[in-house]
Amino acid sequence: MHTKTELIFGGIVAVYAFISISEAATLTGTLPVSAIVKASCQNFVSGTLNHGDYDPASVADNDAQTTLTLQCTNTTPLTLSASSGSGSLAQRQLSSGANRLNYNLFTSSARLAIWGDGTGGTSTIAATGVGMLTNVSLTIFSRIPKGQSAAIPGTYSDSITITVTY
Question: What residue ranges do the domains of the chain occupy?
Answer without folding.
Answer: 44-148
